[in-house]
Structures are given as C-alpha cells and as structure tokens.
Amino acid sequence: MRISVITVSYNSSATIKDTLESVKGQAYPEVEHIIVDGLSKDDTLRIVSGYSHVSKVISEKDAGIYDAMNKGVLASTGDVVGILNSDDFYYGNDVLSKVAAVFNEKKCDALYGDLQYVDQKNLAKVIRHWEAGNYSANAFMWGWMPPHPTFFVRRELYEKWGRFNTQFRTAADYELMLRFIHKHHGSVEYIPDILVRMRTGGASNRSFKGRLRAHAEDKLAWSINGLDRYWFTLFLKPLRKIIQYIKVK
Q1: Sign of the dihedral defined by the CA atoms of residues 120, 122, 123, 127, in that order
Q2: What is Dmax (Cα atoms) for the chain?
Q3: What angle do CA 8, 20, 194 make, to 5 degrees?
Q4: Cα–Cα distance for residue pair 111/231, rounded to 1 Å
Q5: Using one digit for the tens of pLDDT, what is the confidence trace for 108-135?
Q6: 170: number of CA atoms within 13 Å, CB side?
Q7: Which residues of 43-59 are buried (b: 16+ CB within 10 A; e: fewer)?
Q8: In a 10 Å sphere around its CB, with 0-12 CB exposed, 13-18 middle and 19+ buried, how is residue 228 labelled?
Q9: Helix (H/G/I), strand (E/B), else coil: 119
Q10: Strand partners, 111
Q11: Taking a C-beta distance cutoff of 8 angstroms, is the pair 51, 85 a contact?
C-alpha cells in the first residue's frame, strides 16, 4: 500500500524543514511525498530541493490552500492520501506504519487520530490536545469532527465523492469530512494515538471575525450537501474546543 502525503506551502521556509524531516523519517517504506507550492518568494523551494525523498514538486500560482490541496490529490498515485501542511509534522516515525496497518486490517475508507497544537517557537509546549474519540453515527450532529491533519482517505473516495470545495475559505476540510463520513457513510476508523503536531495559529480561529466566518461556512457545508442538523449543532462545534484546552492543564 502506497501512502501519498500532500504538503501545501507558501513562504514556509521557517517551518517546512520540520515537515520534510518528519516524512523522510517515517519507518514505512511506501511513501509518496508531494509538495504543492504557491510560488514562494522565500527559501521554501531551496529547502525542499535538499530532500531526495520528495516525489513531486508543483510550484505555480493557485487559487488558495484548497485549490493547492486538490492539485496534490490529482497528482497523487497512492492508495491512501493524507494532508500534512508545511507547519505540521508527524508525532513519531511510526505514524504512517500505524496508518497502513489499520487500512490493511480494517479495510476502511478513511481513518483519523489525535492532534496536538504546539507553540510556534517552543514545539515541546502543548497548547491544545485534541482527543478525537471514536466515531458514532450522527456524531457530526453533535458538533463532532475529526482533526483534518490526521485524516487519511483512500484516493478512490476523492474520485467518487469529489475533492475540496474551493468556494470555502477555511472550512473545506470540514465540508469534505462531513460529505465523506456523514453524507455518504464512508467507513472510518480511529487510531487512539497522537498522529500529528500542529503549530498554533489556524485561520478560522485568529479573531472574532474569523470565528463568525467559520460559523457561516460550517452552516454552508450542511446546506450545500442537503443535510439536516440540530439547531445547536454548529454552536456545539466550537464549544468542544474548550475541553481540548482543559485537557492540557
């Protein structure tokens, strides 16, 4: 089983080395690492060029992060696809081995695990711990979602159910997982381990304005898929994050 890892970058010279090292260091042998760069103006591409494990580099103007992710999905040849952005890195060298083992054993459509947010400068300082938990039917109705950086999908699902919807600015990952798991009932498994560490500073959570935009996009994700939800579904989604901060204390 080949696993395609897609890394989207733009002016990421300060962080992408950690991403590259974490993929290069994986014990699992069948990995295709694809870099999709939006014409970085810093040293990002020079740093990438120093890593021979990188399978493909696409460097061209894009229409945003989700357009870049779609380019990576289209360029991938693996049986399974995961997204690891240029400020994220795998928790250990056995992450992809765990992912492959679950896909092989469970024959699932997708899987996910836990995520840690860490300080941008002090990577040993955990800011938020996202323990995703097992999926149950209608979990999305109760504000649940898996952490997208830990989400791995069989590539055929993108071909069958579509890629990232580029009309979204910050919630295309949520919409895609809602579509794959809740709408189309793709089978999903949970790995109860930390798979990815992410630096803090997500686009949807930086400000009150950003949170309002995220709420509007979450609402759109349900409506464009023709899905019903509870009146409180979208209010529970951000409230779940409070527990994630408490678990670090």
Answers
A1: negative
A2: 51
A3: 85
A4: 28
A5: 999 999 999 999 989 999 999 999 999 9
A6: 17
A7: ebbebbeebeebbebbe
A8: exposed
A9: coil
A10: 152, 189
A11: no
Using CA atoms, how far apart are residues 110 and 1, in angstroms rounded to an integer?
14
- Give yes or no for a contact between 114 and 132, defined as CB atoms under 8 angstroms apart: yes
> Global pTM?
0.94
Q: Return the amino acid letter for 2.
A: R
- Spell out where the chain has E strands: 3-9, 31-37, 54-59, 80-83, 88-90, 110-118, 126-130, 152-154, 188-199
> In this predicted structure, which of 48-57, 194-203, 219-228 has the lowest mean pLDDT?
194-203
**In the chain, where the domains are located:** 3-246
User: Is 192 exposed, middle or buried (CB count within 10 Å of its CB: 0-12, 13-18, 19+)?
Assistant: exposed
Give the closest residue to 114 by CA, choosing from 132, 97, 99, 95. Answer: 132
Q: How many CB atoms lie within 10 A of CB 128?
A: 18
Higher-confidence position of 209 and 13: 13
- Compute CA distances 20 → 49, 63, 70, 113, whole Å: 11, 24, 20, 20
Q: Yes or no: is domain 3-246 CATH 3.90.550.10?
A: yes
